[in-house]
């Protein structure tokens, strides 16, 4: 789907989103992640250190991302959004491939470049898997969060 | 489950809002922003937005409290979250959340580096699964550049920066031999290579035999807790065994060659003692470091054994003065081990590795360090009095302020491993300065005698 401009703005600036996935046993796991947005798709990278969520996604690729923290977002552009989408895991090259998203990561966390230079110290943190989320449905609460959201499909 | 009072207080104090996540009719998780909540031991009560569908009894949900503090120049810090898994029901148009279990992270409680360390088993499990899927081994990279990665790999598995600890004693002996007119570049080079190889073998053997103790350790630092090469999947246990055996298999023939040309009985005896100490330090059945003898073994191995052996190879003489000169060097190397054991103290106790710092009360641990430094200087002064070391070597006293500040920090941070890191680093610098001054003083006295 084409992500509306205002939603894309929030996604491009948000520093945190809550990733939710349903496990096989019906429980939901929820984790904060750093969302990266480009060309109507949302990405995040996950170190293999924090790979439990990847195992859950592998079994159920129907995920949602909820942004209800305005950190990083210019106030006039902020409103809570929920994105439902299909996740694809790419671990074909955990050494280097995630670096293609580095420009998006760096825009949100400028200091990350200095940390990468310390790959020697924390090698497993820099073995990273890319998760690409193809949005299917977006809910936006422009205004009161107690009122129904605007839905984009 | 019941939420404990300290957890309730923690949530109230640290989080302003949350999100309640539930499964929508389409099978995707959906979320509600929660800005008001009442939290009790057995439930959390939330407002229900009027547009939300009716929840059935005991629906699976998570309630996640998340916080970051934005940095004005970009990025964020102060990360913390708590994700509570539970069930919900509706009561009087309110959502009643019944907690079942939770997981959390707060970087002020568990520093990021420690959080990573706790999750190493997850990473290794993922790596093994991935290896199985793609049908080949994957070694985590240490640098993006492939050549630098290989160099860093050797640095990491053999802990090459720590070779200072053995090369300085060797160098000091060579310089002392040179002072009385014995110098041979070929022998000196062989000695340095042999000593470095034994030390590299020791480092990796230490990782190999200490595997379980290092795995328990959740707060390793660049100076303690082993190299983590095995824990991080950089090398397999068999690979580590092969790598340390290669070091010994190159070093021992060098030693035998030196024995044949310089003195069979003396060199073989000293070399055998050195190799035995390096292996038995962690290898069964002796496991000297587990029995409280590791520190003395290191003091003897890095002091008298390396120095006497090197001196004998150069001069073919056994001199009381070289033994005297080797004592402060052995003690200062022992102090490196001692101070580096402090961050591992808690984990070594759990692993049954009863190093010296685990055998004394935490209050007395800094005192132990102070005693080692006092002994280093006292035995150095004694060595100077007996002319085993030059008087100018006492310039080392100018740097006594360094261990004083390390001692103070050890008292302050005895139970805070990461806070100890600057002190561990400082102690290594102190050792290098101390050894460099002694080396320089010998060169000075050899070529420009003061007295």
List how many beta strands of chain A DSSP finds: 8
- In CATH, the architecture of the largest domain in chain B is Orthogonal Bundle
Mean pLDDT of chain B: 94
Instruction: Sketch the topology of chain A as an H/E string, one letter per element.
Output: HEEEEHEEHHEE
Can you count the beta strands of chain B? Answer: 7
CATH fold-level topology of chain A: Pnp Oxidase, Chain A
Main sheet specs of chain A: 8 strands, antiparallel
- Please identify the top-level CATH class of the largest domain in chain B: Mainly Alpha
- Largest interface, C-beta within 8 A: A-B, 59 and 57 residues
Provide the β-strand percentage band of chain A: 35-45%
Helix count of chain B, per DSSP? 16
For the record, the count of structural domains of chain B works out to: 2
Mean pLDDT of chain A: 92
Structural class of chain A: alpha+beta
CATH topology of the largest domain in chain B: Farnesyl Diphosphate Synthase
CATH architecture of chain A: Roll
Q: CATH top level of chain A?
A: Mainly Beta
The CATH homologous superfamily of chain A is called Electron Transport, Fmn-binding Protein, Chain A
SSE class of chain B = alpha+beta
Give a brief outline of the structure:
With 153 residues, chain A is of the alpha+beta class.
Structure description:
The complex is a heterodimer of chains A (153) and B (451). With 153 residues, chain A is an alpha+beta fold. Chain A has one domain: Roll (Pnp Oxidase, Chain A), CATH 2.30.110. Helices cover 19% and strands 35% of the residues of chain A. Chain A contains four helices and eight strands. Chain A has helices at 5-13, 52-59, 102-108, 112-116, and strands at residues 17-22, 28-33, 36-38, 41-47, 62-67, 81-90, 128-140, 150-152. In chain A, strands 1, 2, 3, 4, 5, 6, 7 and 8 form an eight-stranded antiparallel β-sheet that branches. In chain A, strand 3 (36-38) and strand 4 (41-47) form a beta hairpin. The longest helix of chain A has 9 residues, at 5-13. The relative contact order of chain A is 0.24. With 451 residues, chain B is an alpha+beta fold. Chain B has two domains: 5-109, Pnp Oxidase, Chain A (Roll), CATH 2.30.110.10; 154-447, Farnesyl Diphosphate Synthase (Orthogonal Bundle). In chain B, 56% of the residues lie in helices and 13% in strands. Chain B is built from 16 helices and seven strands. A seven-stranded antiparallel β-sheet of chain B has the order 2-1-5-6-7-4-3, covered by helices on one side. In chain B, helix 5 (164-179) runs antiparallel to helix 6 (185-209), helix 9 (264-280) packs antiparallel against helix 10 and helix 15 packs antiparallel against helix 16. Chains A and B meet through strand 1, strand 2, helix 2 and strand 5 of A and strand 1, strand 2, strand 5, strand 6 and helix 3 of B.
């Amino acid at each position: 789907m084409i992500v509306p401009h205002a939603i894309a703005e929030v996604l491009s600036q948000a520093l945190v989103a809550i990733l939710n996935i349903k496990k096989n046993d019906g429980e939901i796991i929820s984790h904060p992640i750093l969302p990266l947005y480009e060309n109507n798709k949302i990405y995040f990278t996950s170190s293999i250190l924090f790979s439990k969520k990847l195992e859950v996604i592998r079994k159920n690729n129907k995920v949602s991302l909820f942004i209800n923290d305005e950190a990083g977002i210019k106030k006039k552009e902020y409103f809570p959004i929920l994105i439902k989408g299909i996740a694809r895991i790419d671990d074909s090259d955990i050494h280097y491939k995630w670096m293609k998203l580095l420009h998006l990561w760096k825009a949100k966390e400028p200091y990350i470049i200095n940390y990468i230079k310390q790959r020697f110290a924390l090698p497993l943190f820099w073995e990273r898997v890319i998760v690409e989320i193809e949005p299917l449905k977006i809910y936006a609460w422009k205004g009161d969060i107690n009122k129904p959201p605007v839905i984009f499909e | 489950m019941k939420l404990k009072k300290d957890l309730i207080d923690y949530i109230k104090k640290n989080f302003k809002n949350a999100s309640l996540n539930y499964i929508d009719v389409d099978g995707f998780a959906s979320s509600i922003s929660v800005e008001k909540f009442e939290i009790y031991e057995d439930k959390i009560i939330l407002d229900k937005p009027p547009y939300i569908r009716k929840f059935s009894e005991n629906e699976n949900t998570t309630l996640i409290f998340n916080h970051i503090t934005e940095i004005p120049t970009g990025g964020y810090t102060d990360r913390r979250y708590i994700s509570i898994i539970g069930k919900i029901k509706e009561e009087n148009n309110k959502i009643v959340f019944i907690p079942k279990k939770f997981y959390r992270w707060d970087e002020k409680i568990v520093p990021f580096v420690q959080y990573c360390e706790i999750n190493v088993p997850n990473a290794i499990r993922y790596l093994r699964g991935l290896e199985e899927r793609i049908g080949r081994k994957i070694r985590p990279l240490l640098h993006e550049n492939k050549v630098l990665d290989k160099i860093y790999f050797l640095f990491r598995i053999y802990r090459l920066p720590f070779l200072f600890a053995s090369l300085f004693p060797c160098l000091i002996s060579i310089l002392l031999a040179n002072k009385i007119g014995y110098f041979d570049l070929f022998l000196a080079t062989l000695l340095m290579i042999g000593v470095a190889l034994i030390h590299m073998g020791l480092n990796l053997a230490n990782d190999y035999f200490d595997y379980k103790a290092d795995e328990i350790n959740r707060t390793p630092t660049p100076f303690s807790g082993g190299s983590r090469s095995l824990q991080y999947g950089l090398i397999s246990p068999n690979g580590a065994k092969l790598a340390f055996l290669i070091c010994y298999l190159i070093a021992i023939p060098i030693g035998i060659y030196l024995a044949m040309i310089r003195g069979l009985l003396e060199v073989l005896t000293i070399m055998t003692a050195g190799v035995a100490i390096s292996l038995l330090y962690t290898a069964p059945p002796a496991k000297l470091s587990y029995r409280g003898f590791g520190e003395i073994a290191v003091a003897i191995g890095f002091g008298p054994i390396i120095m006497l052996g090197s001196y004998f190879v150069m001069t073919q003489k056994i001199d009381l003065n070289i033994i005297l000169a080797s004592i402060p060097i052995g003690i200062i190397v022992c102090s490196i081990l001692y101070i580096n054991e402090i961050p591992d103290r808690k984990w070594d106790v759990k692993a049954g590795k009863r190093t010296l710092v685990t055998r004394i009360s935490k209050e007395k641990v800094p005192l132990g360090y102070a005693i080692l430094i006092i002994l280093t200087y006292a035995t150095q002064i004694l060595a100077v009095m007996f002319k085993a070391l030059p008087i100018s070597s006492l310039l080392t006293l100018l740097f006594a302020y360094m261990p004083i500040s390390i001692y103070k920090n050890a008292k302050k941070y005895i139970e805070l491993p990461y806070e100890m890191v600057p002190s561990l680093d400082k102690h290594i610098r102190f050792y290098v300065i101390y050894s460099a001054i002694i080396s320089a003083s010998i060169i000075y006295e050899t070529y420009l005698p003061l007295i």
